[in-house]
């Protein structure tokens, strides 16, 4: 394993707008997410993420990798409900130049470790569209269980079929 594969997470901050734009603001990164977000939406999202930090809620992170620990993507988690039960949901993005090196799966394992320690909710969910092979691969590699496909809309008005993946944070890790 080279230096390129070692990741760390740091909280998303005010200086990370360009990274956000390079993930959710471009066609090649949003092929399975309904296309690039508008500059207004991106700016609102940035403010939301920064506000999380200001409230002391470390829930959105920048993935750092490589010898110089540069910003290569984002990962976060947020409160969610599944069949009436409180749960967590997660989502991730790794810039094209850094994809295919296991970085998103490593970052996901790190989020899992943090949520295991946090301990308030049992399950972590992820909802990649069925066509998003890379993201489904991340779920599989990080140890999520596939519950199956479901029809949905994302963003609003855009019909999709997504896979429901669930990770049991209370199960013993091996
Ligand atoms: C999804 C994404 C974060 C994956 O990042 P990554 O760091 O390249 O992922 P990993 O290297 O950890 O890949 C994990 C597994 O997925 C699979 N995989 C990765 N890229 C793949 C691809 N293009 N096609 C098929 N399978 C792929 C592999 O099986 C891999 O396991 P392996 O290392 O044992 O071969 C990245 O492609 C991305 O940012 N996409 C755009 C944003 C997005 O769709 N986010 C997800 C929203 S649900």
Describe the 3D structure:
The chain has 174 residues and is α+β, with helices and mostly antiparallel strands. The chain has a single domain, classed as 3-Layer(aba) Sandwich (Aminopeptidase), CATH 3.40.630. It is built from 4 helices and 7 strands. A 7-stranded mixed β-sheet has the order 1-2-3-4-5-7-6, with helices on both faces. Strand 2 (60-65) and strand 3 (70-82) form a beta hairpin. Helix 1 (17-24) crosses helix 2 (39-54) and helix 3 (103-118) crosses helix 4. It is globular and about 35 Å long. It starts with 6 loop residues before the first strand and ends in a 6-residue tail after the last strand. The relative contact order is 0.15. Residues 29, 32-33, 91-94, 99-105, 128, 132-135, 137-138, 141 line the site of coenzyme A.
